[in-house]
Predict the 3D structure of the following.
Amino acid sequence: ARTMNLLAALSKVKVCVPDEEGRVPKPDNKSTMHAADRDKLQENCLGVLGLFAIDKPCRTTIAKVNPSLSHLFFLCKDLEDYEEPWRSLRRKRAAYLVANVLIRDADIRVQILQQNVIKRVPE
């Protein structure tokens, strides 16, 4: 549950990006972090959730924390403030995690269909 909440928080955090000369400014407040740090934390969270998604009780917890899987669907989008290679790799890992959860768990699959979440997935 904490990993899912951390992943959601990381999706909303403001990032510091390098300027034209490659210098990275210091974060200006507690809600700002370096893009590389955010990307690494997201990578680790998606990896942990990918491992946990194999286990039924963990999938149930993921669905309780975020019943519509909106945090994961959000990370499947092509978000502008991400750089390659993490930009495409993040989308791939988030999509894999969503697919893994939906394929393995019929209850969550029914829950997602009943909420019409699939209609809101970006193209």
About this structure: Helices lie at 2-12, 35-52, 56-65, 70-76, 86-104, 106-114. The beta strands are 14-16, 32-34. The two ends are 28 Å apart (CA to CA). The chain has a mean pLDDT of 82.
